[in-house]
Design brief:
single chain; 471 residues; alpha/beta; Rossmann fold; 2 domains; six-stranded mixed sheet; two-stranded antiparallel sheet; 57% helix; coiled coil; vWFA_dom_sf; signal; VWF_A; VWA domain-containing protein
Length: 471
């Protein structure tokens, strides 16, 4: 009886244990499912959080919905390439901190989907180039530079390019609020002041200099616009250089307001009215970091100055300008047959003023013994051509490597697949190999005229490229 009771108890206990085991297993399964669900939710939440963070960090970026996007296509002629405006972020290539570069680009570029189409990648590459585009120049820029450097040659037909008894240089300097922006550890205005002071130190004793500023009064507010747009002042009268006085004068200029370029040109014509082009070689340099923001037509104002009895040479420097600003400043230079150059840092700004310094030194030599300098001019074609080609080749290398560094950073960070990276890498190499080929062809053509006399070479270049630009 006892044994039977024990058997019954054993059977009941067995059923109980089996039931508990099954219940525990079910609880374990439920718990695992719950854990997996929580993990999944946490993972999704994390993704959403990351996506939200990305969107916050990329608050200026575009999502890559191609329904409202256009892939413009890459340039297929050198002329088309040179018409592309310089990108605003070439200097970022110099940063050594890859994380900093990546963060910056992610804020500026559209967000790629996980598996982008070729069309989306083409658009992405197009937007990269807009940020880092180098300022490629066609042979017409070489011609403009050669013409400027040929100042003083007796073979020059345009009288404004012939040396006269006096040399006068007026610098029209942007003092608008944007000149307070940082560049290479100092403000643009500080860099411009240092460059001007260094420039005048190397000028001939008898050369005269004037400095006019604009946009240096009021503020960038709408309330101060009228006041600021009237502000332009000849802070250093056109005269022989007094280094101490000039330095003190520049110290008092602070960038504050709007950008009245038109008024600055109109007043510059008055500054030079006593320096008739018959007896004076007059050179005007406009230094600006952006488009005119006040009323008037700066292109027409520059043209009026160019056509006046002052007969000046007008050159323009764009100091870290955006695309709209570059377009307007280029038009000013083109209208007045002058040189336009974009500079991104103080060193490049200094190089542009060094060109004027060389011309001034040539003028001083001409005053002393003109024939010697003219004979040297005839040997400079090779250097001009070499310098032009070297600059273009350097731009190709820099642009190619900067583009490569961008999508390489995306891939290494895990925000771009290997396939997308390889597609962009091949596209980048193919495009820049084409530019290399174009420059080699230009080099071959230019080498055919390098042994000519300076003016003969200049004339040959003008006939080939100015009148019939290579497509």
């Amino acid at each position: 009886m006892v044994r039977r009771s024990y058997s019954i108890f054993s059977i009941v206990l067995l059923f109980f244990l089996i039931a508990c085991s099954q219940n525990n297993e079910q609880q374990a399964v439920d718990k695992n499912n719950q854990t997996e669900q929580q993990d999944s939710e946490n993972s999704e939440g994390k993704k959403d959080s990351l996506s939200s963070d990305d969107n916050n960090s990329q608050n200026n970026a575009e999502t890559l919905d191609m329904s409202n996007k256009t892939v413009e296509g890459l340039p297929d002629t050198y002329k088309a390439l040179t018409s592309k405006p310089a990108g605003p972020h070439q200097e970022l290539y110099k940063y050594t901190d890859e994380a900093k570069r990546l963060e910056f680009y992610q804020d500026k570029l559209p967000i790629l989907p996980e598996n982008p189409s070729n069309k989306q990648l083409d658009y992405f590459y197009q937007e990269i180039l807009k940020l880092i585009q180098r300022d490629f120049n066609g042979p017409d820029k070489l011609i403009d530079n050669m013409r400027f450097q040929s100042l003083g040659s007796p073979d020059v037909e345009d009288s404004r390019y012939q040396f006269k008894e006096n040399l006068n240089i007026e610098i029209i300097l942007d003092a608008s609020g944007s000149m307070d922006e940082d560049v290479s550890g100092q403000t643009k205005m500080e860099a411009a002041k240092e460059t001007i002071q260094s420039f005048v130190q190397g000028l001939p004793e008898k050369a005269k200099v004037g400095i006019r500023v604009y946009g240096h009064k009021g503020s960038e507010s709408e309330a101060d616009k009228q006041k600021s747009c009237k502000s332009t002042e000849l802070i250093y009268q056109i005269s022989e250089i007094d280094q101490r006085k000039l330095s003190q004068t520049l110290k008092g200029v602070e960038p504050t307001g709007w950008t009245p370029i038109t008024k600055a040109f109109q007043e510059a014509e008055k500054d030079l009215k006593d320096f008739n082009g018959d007896r004076n070689t007059n050179i005007v340099y406009l230094v600006s970091d952006g488009i005119a923001t006040c009323e008037g037509d700066p292109i027409q104002a520059a043209k009026d100055l160019y056509s006046s009895e002052v007969t000046p040479i007008i050159n323009v420097i764009g100091f870290q300008v955006d695309q709209k600003g570059q377009k307007q400043l280029e038009n000013i230079a083109d209208t007045t047959k002058g040189i336009y150059e974009t500079v991104e840092n103080p060193n490049q700004l200094k190089k542009e003023f060094d060109k004027v310094k060389e011309v001034a030194q040539s003028w001083e030599d001409w005053k002393d013994h003109s024939e010697t300098k003219i004979s040297v001019k005839d040997t400079e074609n090779s250097l001009d051509i070499f310098g032009y080609i070297t600059d273009e080749e350097g731009k190709i290398i820099d642009e190619r490597m900067q583009a490569e560094s961008i999508f390489s950073a995306y891939w290494m960070e895990g925000t771009m697949s290997k396939e997308s990276y390889q597609y962009l890498e091949e596209k980048n190499h193919t495009y820049h190999d084409w530019i290399v080929k174009e420059v080699k062809e230009l080099k071959s053509e230019l080498n055919n005229i390098r042994e000519k006399k300076h003016q003969e070479a200049l004339k040959a270049l003008e006939e080939k490229y100015k009148n019939n630009t290579k497509e």
